[in-house]
Design a protein that fits this description.
This protein has two helices and eleven strands. It is mostly beta strands. Strands 1-11-10-7-8 form a five-stranded mixed beta sheet, with no helix packed on it. The chain has a four-stranded antiparallel beta sheet with strand order 2-3-6-9. Strands 4-5 form a two-stranded antiparallel ribbon. A hairpin with a 6-residue loop joins strand 2 and strand 3.
Length: 222
């Protein structure tokens, strides 16, 4: 079923290419392999109290099921509003108590950088975390689930990993997903992304800093 959805989305993109060749001023893309400066991360409402249980873990996965992939593993997802195919690959994780001039409300910022690539004939984008179950979530090793941007996480922007908007065909962007977690929640966990078809993709994230961009992310966090 998953393969049929991806094939249908790709076919629809090809059919729409002629009328959607221009994506407008909201696209922040760069040539393949080049980080994008992008725009500051859009703010989400701040959470109150503990982030425990601020979101519900996705259920009924139709992507790669419950199997969590390793950091650095790419996954093909369907873009926003079922338009385009976006390959998402988490690359680096950094743990910090503060960054971007902000201090973690709950004790630890977990920053996960991703490399997003548009694989279809139409510009495509990720789903946003809007309370509908789509977008990014963190499931801690203790089972608690937190949505991206809670606490003070939405205030943190990392130059070179702050891209937003649609990605042009064949282009790629460096992005960052930031979570404000308690020390217990930050002891390793699972990163979950749910696309527009409600398919969920999971990656196992280590409790320690890992990945090729650790030094760069730390430097830019300040």
């Amino acid at each position: 079923m998953r393969k049929i959805l991806l094939a249908t989305a790709a076919t629809a993109c090809l059919a729409l290419t002629a009328c959607n060749g221009t994506t407008g001023s909201d696209a922040h893309t760069t040539p393949t392999g080049t980080p994008s400066a992008g725009q500051p991360t859009t703010g989400l409402p701040t959470a109150t109290g503990s982030p425990t249980g601020t979101a519900t873990a996705p259920s009924g996965d139709t992507g790669n099921g419950s199997a969590a992939q390793a950091l650095g593993t790419p996954e093909r997802t369907v873009g926003t509003k079922l338009v385009g195919i976006v390959e998402i690959m988490p690359t680096t994780v950094v743990h910090a108590t503060a960054g971007g001039g902000q201090t973690s409300r709950y004790g630890t910022f977990v920053v996960i950088t991703t490399l997003d690539t548009s694989l279809s004939a139409n510009a495509a984008d990720e789903e946003t975390t809007d309370g509908t179950g789509a977008g990014w979530q963190w499931i801690g090793s203790n089972g608690q689930t937190v949505s991206e941007g809670k606490g003070n996480a939405f205030k943190v922007s990392i130059a070179g990993y702050d891209s937003l908007g649609r990605i042009e065909p064949g282009a790629r962007q460096n992005r960052a997903e930031i979570f404000d977690l308690t020390p217990e929640q930050a002891k390793g966990g699972t990163l979950v992304y749910t696309d527009s078809t409600k398919a969920s993709y999971r990656w196992k994230i280590p409790a320690a800093d890992a990945g090729p961009d650790v030094a760069t992310v730390k430097q830019r966090l300040g």
